[in-house]
Amino acid sequence: MPPPPRGGPAPAPPPTGEPLASIGMVLNQLRDEFPEVTISKIRFLESEGLVEPRRTPSGYRKFSPEDVERLTQVLRMQRDHYLPLKVIREHLDAVARGERLPLPAQASQGPQRELIASTWDPESAPPTAPRIGRAELLAATEAAESELDEWEAYGLIAPMADGGYDSEAVTVAKLVAELGRFGLEPRHLRAVKAAADREAGLVEQVVAPLRRHRNPQTRAHAEAATRELAALSVRLHAALVQTALGVRLT
User: Which domain range does residue 34 map to?
Assistant: First the structure.
């Protein structure tokens, strides 16, 4: 008899005759209604506690019809109501306990809420900074004009058409300034910029079919998918850097 999986006893076997589906079969079932769903998305929902498929002794996921229905409900609540996963999980768990609850209120920011619904904690995510001018950026980073010129020359940040800088540019500028205090110059960061460009290109390859899709809802979710993939890419990058350095960030 194979040993139980690491971390606890093996899950109880399903009732006799209960049909179970592999993750690929579940993906095919869901794609009729959710053409943008991916295996990575299903795995992510599992990691967030939205569904708990059984595992074979070899570690393969097996989904019951109830699991598939729960996934369907999760995806519908994300698509139609833009609710954070924490809210969705609490609502579905309450319903599973037999509580009769109204559907949580719909979020007000449309597809942008998908970022919160997928990866970010809304309580810890920083607020979006308004667009600022060059003088304000210099003050925020305590940088000199020559330093900002060098950042722009190396393509690390770029002003908008009106000469202002958006919140992403402000974030990059502050990080570049902080790294500069450790002796890292813009020329040292070219490899980081090149790696970021390659990751962005990979994300674009994934979302391009969504943007070309005939279904308007699928096209509308391309931005949400882009944000989710970007956030996952950032998390992976951070984990790989930590692993390579043998350190744990606090």
Answer: 23-118
